[in-house]
Amino acid sequence: MPILIDGRPLQTPSASRGIGRYVGHIQRAFAGDGRCRFLFFRGDDVPSGHDGPVLTPSPRRLITLSDSFFLPPLFRRHAISAYHSTAFALPRRTAKVRCLLTVFDLTLLKFPEKSSWRHRQVSRRIIESAGRADVIMPISKKTAADLREFTAIEPSRLRVVYPMLDDRLVAANAEKPAAALPGEYLLYVGGADPTKNIETLLRAAGRLGLPLLVAGPISAQRIRELLRPLPAAERRLVSFLGCVPDSHLAYLYRGAMAFVFPGLNEGFGYPPLESLQCGTPAVVSRAGALPEILENAALYVNDPLDPGEWSARIRSLLESPDLKRELLARAAGLLPRYSPAAFRKNLECAYFPGGPIANEA
After folding, report:
1. What is the pTM of this model?
2. CATH: 3.40.50.2000, 3.40.50.720, 3.20.20.150, 3.90.45.10. Which one for 171-337?
3. Are 235 and 227 in contact (CB under 8 A)?
4. Which of 38, 113, 131, 170 has a CB 3.0–4.6 Å from the CB of 7, allowing a cystine?
5. Residue 213: helix, strand or coil by DSSP?
6. pLDDT tens sequence across 123-174
7. How far is it, in rounded angstroms, from Cα 361 to Cα 144?
């Protein structure tokens, strides 16, 4: 009896964020595995590469509510033995179906003042779904600890599954974007939610007088909000590139003087690892799971809200070639931990109980 994996984030705006990366990597890891099926919305945007995908007629809004009506009949029709929710929520329980839930972070619970009503409802759904899950798969030990802090979940139901790094996103596969780029620049990759703390990064780049490239799914309205408080000279230092393909992203990583990542709480942190993979050191906040994931292969900012500390840390990296080389040498020993093979092994242990235990929460 197969396990059903929710691939629908690849059909939503989440496709361009870390959730989409994670689901795409599951798709790659288990492509052609007859024990696994993938769930998608009906439509002409169903990702290719799946034999007999399971399609749901559920609407793309109010997914949590509608899933409880649409998914249980699908489970029975396709003889599903387990369901892996890759994006926040589980439907109501169905007899003889194991429920697995990935939890990326609890940022919205830790910073409620920076979240909207809609986002607070997402937090509520995560907690409710965790209560129904047979196996909860946080993507870091820090997220597992946060779950234990905010809920009464038994530790025995937690199983840390670190995401993988895509071994195709490397400097050798880099392709220059068509847009004109400055000769020297700092790089940030990610979203622009308030907890991503880009405002502080913009002020730090302004103090340094260095161009800052920002790649990620950021709306025009949010860009205006970010730029409005800055003096005209500092606004000219910032370029918003939007979402870029991985080949262009590899080029941007490789060409940056330093990668900068100022988030207030990260459940994992793909971008700084990807930057290290492409040969560029990272300056990151000492927040969330970043010290766990990057260990001693990054330069840390202790107060992520202090632009002065950001500018000082970035300057210290740029002025020390020896420090750059040391960080990259440490990264060479760290990156294999996030290999596709390790990722698949850890998921297999959760999907198909009875195998060896790969790690503990």
Report:
1. 0.92
2. 3.40.50.2000
3. yes
4. 38
5. strand
6. 788 889 999 999 999 999 999 999 999 888 999 999 999 999 998 888 788 8
7. 6
